[in-house]
Specification:
Distance between the termini: 46 Å
Shape: globular
Number of helices: 15
CATH architecture: Alpha-Beta Barrel
Bound molecules: ligand 9MR
Number of strands: 9
Helix content: 40-55%
CATH class: Alpha Beta
Amino acid sequence: MAAERRSRREFLKRATTAAAAGGLADLLPAGYGEARESDGGGARTPADVAGKHSMRAHAAAHGMLVGCAVIPEKLTGEQEYANLVAEQASILVPENALKWAALRPAPDRYDFRGADIILVFAQAHGQKVRGHNLCWHEALPAWFASTVTRENAAQFLTEHIQTVAGRYAGKLQAWDVVNEAIDPKSGLPDGLRKSPWLEMIGPDYIELAFRTARKADATALLTYNDYSIELDSPDQTEKREAVLALVKRMKANGAPIDAVGVQSHLDASAELPGAGLQKFVRELAAMGLQVFVTEMDVNDRKLQGNAEERDLAVAGVYRNYLTMMLAEPNVNVALTWGITDRYTWLKGAKYGRAHGEPERPLPFDADYLPTPAFFAERTAIDSRRKTA
Ligand code: 9MR
């Protein structure tokens, strides 16, 4: 343990030095390394990121909500995880607990235990909750393929939304009503994804889902959520334009949509999001829609360089991206996809760093210490106007 602490201290010192050398010192607060050293290197939630220095306190001072995807079993089973989520987040989203696969053990049974844990936790800690999601082509239960047909698909979708959105009516900040319905690579009209819902119900499934959600919950902000719509690359530009066209069609048809979720799974080795996304956010604002950063993390698996350099590159993406997004008046909510690198979905052979090193895509590392990305995100929040 002592050796582990020493190496953590050394790492933090090296990170500070690397930041200064790379001209990125402003990504880290003064004394980033020393602060950990004086708290013994093993202390949890160092004082400089707790209380009024926490992400949620900074977000509140700047009129916005900040938070992360959470795992109910960790909220109840791991005190350190629960403490960190309580301290840092003012909005939570279940990473998986509200998906069909989690909620629907059988066609005629619902299991709300995981989602309920999150709602209770949030209420106890003064946090809002987003719902994710009501309609997606993934995370469908095993029985789905053999049970849901062209004949009954619309009924299954409607009943699911009535039951789930109805149960939490009035309690959620927003619902991701339809998730990831656009995929120009599917080669279908309007860039629609070849999903079971499209195949069984047809393109109307999207508006059916939104209209049913509005009837079930009059207050949650109804959201369309998608990924790979951030960059100015040809593929992402095409996808973003298809999302905008979808929203415009929905508005023209009078379908109830309040917001678009930009997932923001970014890659530290790629270009930064820029003018295209900014224009998109403003076009949505002109239509009266909010934009949420719903699932941010920054993948560093393709980066060269040592751990400290890669951490700083990840932090640079956090700062630049969130500074751009949070400057827009209709962007007032930002969540990361998890809070600690210990439980990031980017783990494992597919996404891990070179040489088997773990990914560090989130604001807290696997030991629950803040990464440079934490300070970068907090700095971006601070770049917003202060609330009165
Ligand atoms: O992080 C989630 C992972 O644990 C699940 O196995 C997976 C399938 O349900 O979904 C992941 O979350 C996804 C989210 O629901 C939608 N956008 C992409 C996210 C990462 O794949």
